[in-house]
Amino acid sequence: MASSSYRLNYSFLLHLLLFLSSLLTSSADLSFNFYASSCPVAELLVRNTVRSATLSDPTIPGKLLRLLFHDCFVQGCDASVLIQGNTTERSDPGNASLGGFSVIDTAKKALEIICPATVSCADIVALAARDAVEAAGGPVVEILTGRRDGRVSIAANVRPNIIDTDFSLDQMIDGFSSKGLSIQDLVVLSGAHTIGASHCNAFNGRFKQDSKGSFELIDASLDKSYAETLMNKCSSSESSSLTVSNDPETSSTFDNQYYRNLETHKGLFQTDSALMEDDRTRKMVEALASDEEIFFQRWSESFVKLSMVGVRVGEDGEIRRTCSSVN
User: Fold this and answer.
1) Annotated catalytic, 15?
2) Residues 255-282: b if buried by 16+ CB within 10 A, e if exposed
């Protein structure tokens, strides 16, 4: 058994190194430990900031992971989602429920004191999401750094690029494909829903609401008992501010429970259930549900790809002094 496990891990590490090498070749301005000389404490400081914030608020990992998705899917991983203003990405209703900004700001302020004008906000967002997964019990992932911050952030770019929770599988595949991500990446990165929480309006389209505010299940792909729990919570007078855990079983732990939930028809979003309802993705879900080690291996690969979407390097961007505004 031990030798078999060793061969699996060795094979995975070799595969991952070759994969990362191909990314490195195509992104010469990025590198592992990019700040080794210019700011040696950069990655450690971000990691410690994330850990400290998570100890105070267990919802932080889910927020930081979602922040990376919303940044990278709209004009690339350039921290444009952090910029404040009436017409920026951050102002769009699709980003209204994003969180974790204070963690990024805390890390940035500390780094500006230690290493001024050196570490990009885009790298901090990517590192914080990486560290959030580790803080929640997930795998340790090595990522390339050296991203530059974008100078443009436009609200109108948000809706055409983000994945809505009521998308069909074909719509999700198209959205991921436009970012250079495969169907496997789609299934694996959906595993981010193993942590975090969502507001009722993100999934209440699966129910019909009557004039008295009561809900009735209209989505047959959802487990009835689980649906009853959701409907009871969302019929509350405080439902507009109420959040529900994405994973009803292990909401604060990054594990493969999400996929086991899908097998029992307990995916919170329509986009979750769609992965189990289609032959193109069902077998992937079942494989990830049965083996957490495989999920962690696949996650490491797909997360690296996500963190590299549309990165800016060199003169194509800047190092912001404050993450919420351009220089």
Assistant:
1) no
2) bbbbbbbbeebbbbbbbbbbbbbeeebe
